[in-house]
């Protein structure tokens, strides 16, 4: 067996640019792993890599897809902790393990980090560092997004914002991939969770997922609603997965000594703020990015114990890749859109 099916991009463009075709199965090196792809989430990075907006390390022809889960087929001789047959999921970047940043617990900013790609195919070769073993009982559809969504949420809530028992946390974009997981992890941390969304139809789902309160955004500043819910004090922590459109509301919602964790920016626009407002409030503005291998392993444990659960909107065969990208681009669905490049993705 030397060939596989893959959704190839020969140039940037609209979703119709994908061509599902037969290509060579890639070869693996000493520190790499050949994985049979059972599920690959369609992420917003996939969309901007496809349409040409994201150009870093992008050369065509290209197979994209970074939210990968599947089964290990073969391992290079230097792979320390994975074996054929293991179920694995990926993070969005691999790191070198050697540089100063990697050696000081800051691998997400590794100077030699490489983006994970290639999940829109039956097989992919990845550095072992980008993969974490998952229990075989977890569905591939659910594990594929644990790194880019759950891992980033854990990084934001537990390790950057350091949410703790009794605090109040505001989460924006709470029905998005990261927001959905951040809400569950903040709740697990013992915090009171206020979830913000623009869609009133999603209120009940957010409450079921663990939100204590839900704010439906219907104007330019929703901070009065947050103030009302917090006896005028505001929240201890904001986990913001939306960015500039809600920055003003979020900062106004922040209590004195509050921590503002910036996780996402959906648009290109700037924000402005009088610096005095930051120091008068003694606020901390915190940048959150990516996920380490250890954090991903912790998220896998939470998922294995049933303490967090991603929301899957639909699982489609690789031949439906064009449709999958239209669905994600239009934000048409509530939950992740997942491709299943290899057969029997949901049954094994
Ligand atoms: Zn490094």
TrEMBL record:
It comes from the Bacteria. One of its GO terms (molecular function) is oxidoreductase activity. It holds the Pfam family ADH_zinc_N. InterPro entries: ADH-like_C (IPR013149), ADH-like_N (IPR013154), ER (IPR020843), GroES-like_sf (IPR011032), NAD(P)-bd_dom_sf (IPR036291), Zinc-ADH_QOR/CCCR (IPR051603). This is Zinc-binding dehydrogenase. It comes from Amycolatopsis acidiphila. Residues 13-339 form the Enoyl reductase (ER) domain. Keywords: NADP.
